[in-house]
Amino acid sequence: MLQIRCPWCGVREEMEFSYGGQAHIAYPKDPGALSDDEWSRFVFLRDNPKGWFRERWMHSQGCRRWFNALRHTVTHEIAATYKPGEAHPEEPAGGKP
Amino acid sequence: MERFSVFSLLRHALSGHRQWPPFWRDPAPKQKYDAIIVGGGGHGLATAYYLAKNHGLANIAVLEKGWIGGGNTGRNTTIIRSNYLWNESGALYEHSLKLWEGLTEDLGINLMFSQRGVLNLAHNLGDVREAVRRVEANRLNGIDAEWLTPEQVKAFCPIVNIDRNARYPVLGATLQRRGGVARHDTVAWGYARAADAMGVDIIQNCEVTGILRENGAVTGVRTTRGTIMAPKVGVVAAGHTSVIASMADVRLPLQSHPLQALVSEPIKPIHPCVLMSNAVHVYLSQSDKGELVIGAGIDAFNSYSQRGSFHIIEHQMAALIELFPIVSRVRMLRTWGGIVDVCPDASPIISKTPVKGLFLNCGWGTGGFKATPGSGWVFAHTLATGEPHPLNAPFALERFSTGALIDEHGAAAVAH
Fold it and tell me: Which whole number is the average pLDDT over B191-203?
């Protein structure tokens, strides 16, 4: 089980959290102007990298707040967790498989 | 290809079973093929087999980064059924089930295909409505389906607990009598053997590292065993499809997750069918060796490691003991995981791509094994003719723009 550091509550077990998929996907600025293909990209297309991945988690059994994590999808190592709006931490060097 | 018979068994018994020929050759990759299939799992090998058999295209190679049967083909829980809700999926999975029914004879190898019946339990009013609706939809599509009361469920599967006071009582179940299980790795070996006999090159330990393109069309692939040219490339790489597609700058609506399964110590036959429950979430069958084969759900997070979290297994065991109190003291022998590529509508993508000559067969998520023959059949047609077979036309990549999704979350029976 993952040990995840909630930026507000500290390290807790994965079972306290819900997963939110890829992070940093902004809602379209002018939704009415989007074509079907652009909507498709916004709704359905997500990165699925083998390596470092910026993703969202929610501390659903704790403070119920969303935050972001930088996690490796092969080793499951979590390099950093950070609050929404904070600067994005850098990917660790040499971590890619 | 040597056909199995009583006489061949006797003949090989006399030589101590040391003279059996290898199932397939171990060829070095040629410089050029008519088509390349990336991924030597069941679906990829079935594609190669039907390309050679139905379309006379034998100058093809199947590239496998590991070994045949080492990926999801050897990691699934071997359940076969076709009771999907929508017409499109019903037609595709039923085509597959019909192929299963003649596949042992077709491939000349015993797949141990056992149509012992598949139960899908309902535990609440929503489940019951969804299940009865699916039974009616299946019947309209000519797929055998029945609705069973709790007492009928108990008669069909005596070890299941139908106590009305259970936390999640059994309120009934759908039954597909033609559903069942098959020996999964023999499916891969059988397709590989039969495809090899028709001249298909099966190349193991050959990982694709790049896709070569010229003027928007595929010209070949770069691999760990050199560059191989081909005007057509079919990607059947399950959990790694996103990684391969990104080599051709194609983005897909797929997310890769670990899916786990486990088996118990072998015990005497106690479980006569396949039983699945969406709501408490476990699925159970018993192998011919006597092991209970138990499937779990996917981990919520994206991952390319072939292992999942222990609390998923714990959840599975709780559900298992709730439904089958008789197995509470059975010990588990092994757990393992595979990487599944999950699509937003829980249906596969069998499609052309914006890159000419590049074709995809992916997104089978948690339920690809049952579709192995049908998937290979329609994907071979797509590769050979350049256009989809009528059965896989609705499963094109474009459905995510047109909105014509094929939502099978109910019938998929594995939570995602």
Answer: 97
